[in-house]
Amino acid sequence: MDQDDGVGRGVKRSAASTGRAGGVYVPPFKAAQAAVPSDPSTVEYQRAAWDALRKSINGLVNKVNTSNIANIVAELFAENIIRGRGLLVRAVVKAQMASPNFTPVYAALIAVINTKMPEIGELLMKRMILQFRRAYRRNDKIVCLACTKFLAHLVNQQVAHEIVALELLTLLLDKPTDDSVEVAVGFITDCGAMLTELSPRGIHAIFERFRGILHEGEIDKRVQYMIEGLFVIRRGRFADHPAVPPELDLVESADQISHELILNDDHDPERSLDIFHFDPEYTQTEAQYDLIKAEIIGDEELGADGEPESEEEEEEEEAPAEANEMEIIDETGTKDVTLRRTIYLTIMSSLDFEECAHKLLKTPMGEGKEPVLCEMVLECCAQERSYMRFYGLLGERFCRLKREFEQAFEELFARQYATVHRHETSKLRNIAKFFAHLLQADALDWSVLEYISLTETDTTSSSRIFIKIVFQELSEVMGLKKLRARLNDPAYAEFFSGLFPKDSPKNTRFAINFFTSIGLGGLTDELRAFLKVQQVQAEAARAAAAADGDEGSSDVSSDSSDSDTSSDASSSDVSSDGDSSDDQSRAGSSKRARRH
What we know:
By secondary structure, the protein is mainly alpha-helical. It has helices spanning about 1-20, 30-35, 45-60, 70-80, 85-100, 105-115, 120-135, 140-155, 160-175, 180-200, 200-215, 220-235, 280-295, 310-325, 335-350, 355-360, 370-385, 390-400, 405-420, 425-440, 460-480, 480-485, 505-515, 525-565, 565-595. The protein is elongated. Belongs to the CWC22 family.
C-alpha cells in the first residue's frame, strides 16, 4: 500500500512537470520576450526595441484623426522618431494610400512634426515625388491621384513649396491626355486656394493652359466637363475647397518650414532608414533624444519614464532649467538671406502692389527688419529692364503705413546717391524714377534733397544723370509751376541750398547752366536774379575801389602840375600859331580836291 502510494506520488510529480494537466502554458512570443537580454548594447535587445518602435508608430498613425491629432503628435514625439523616421514616413504614406480621404489629417500631422524635425518632412517629400514619377511613367492613375492629393495638401500646409506644385502641373499639362488632365484638375482643386494666394501669376498661366486644352477639344467630353467645373470653382474663389480646414490649422506661419525640391532632380529616398541597423552607441543616442523630447514636449508634460510629473517636481526643476538656458545668437546672416528670398518671391508672385504689400506685411520679419524690406523693394525695382510703377506705388504704401519705412527709404536715398556711380545706366534710371515717385507723392520728405550738392567738383557724370532724371520726372508729373513753388518754399530753403548754391558765382552759374541744359531753366529764375544782384554789387564794389585809387593819384600829381603851368602857357602860344597855319593848308588842299 505504501509502495503504491509512493509510485502514485512519483507519477503525479512527473505529470505536473511534463503534462498539460498540472503545468503552465507559455505562449511562444512571451517565451521569445523572456529570452531577450536586458542589455541595450546587444543586437537582440536593439532588434526587439526596433520592432516595438515600428509597431507603436504604425498604431499611432493608423488611429490619427481630426479630434485626436494633438494627442497623437505628443505620443509620436515620445517615441524616437529620429531613429524611426523611415518607419514613420513609410507608415504615413501607406496609410494615406489606403485612405485618401484622410489626406488632410496626415498632411497636418507631418506639418506639425516638420516644424521640429524638418528632415522628416523633407524625406516624405522626396519619397512622394519619386512615387509620383514612378506612377506617372507607368500610367498608374490611381497611385498618381493619391500622390498628387498628398502633395496638394502638403502645399496647403506649406511643407512643400509652391514651385513643386507648378512644376507638377506643367508636367501634367505639357502633353495632355484624359488621365493627366483629370489628375491635374483634382490636384488644383485641392490646392488652388493656396496657389492663388502664393503665386497668382503662376495659377493664371495654368488656367490659361486649361483654357487652351478646352479650346483644342482633343480630350474626352467627361474631362472637358471637369475643366469647366474647375473654372466654376475658381470663379467661386475655391469657397468649397479651403486650403486648410480650421480644425487642422495647427502650425503658426512663423514656424512653417517649406522644402523647395525640384520635381526632376535625383532624390535619395533613403530606404535604408526602413530597416534595422545595429547602433554601437545606442544608450547615448537614446539619451540625446530624451533631451530633444524634453525640449519639444516639455518636462512638465512627461517625466523621465513617460509619466506626468507632480506640481512639486515642476517647481523644483523650474529654477535649474532657467539657469541652464543659453541664448543663441545667429551671426551668420542666415535669417536675413531667408527673409530676402521670401520677400523677392513674394514680390515676383504678386499681381498688383496692394496684394504684394498685404503679403509682405503678413510675412514675419522680426523687429528692426524694415530696412531689409525697403532695400529688397529697391533692388527688385533696379533689376527690371525698365521702370515699373508697381514698385513706386509699393514704396509709397509702405512709407504711409509706418514712419520706420519712411526713415529706411530716406537712408536708402542718401546711400544710393553716394554710390550712384556703381550702377549701370538702366539701374540708375529705375532708382531715380522710384525716388521721384516717392517725392512727388509726398511719401518721402523733400528734405532728403539736402544730400545733393550741385557743383562741378561735388558731382560726377553719374550723379548728374541721377539728378537730371529725378527732376525731369518730377516736372513731368507735377508740372513746372508746381515744382518751382515747392522748390521755392521757404520752409525747405536750407535743404535746397546744395541744389541752388549761392556761395560763389561759379557754383551758381554751374547750377543755372545745368538746369537750363536739361530743359528746366524755369527753376532757376530766383537764382538768376540773385546772380544779377551779385554781379551789380561786384561792379559797384570795383567802381568804388577804382574811384578811391584815382583820388589818391590826383593828390600826388597836384604839385608837379603847378610848376609846369608857365611852360605850358608859352608852349601853347607857339602851338596855336602852328595850328593856324596847319588849318590853312588843310583848307587849300580840300578846295583842290573838290575842283578835281
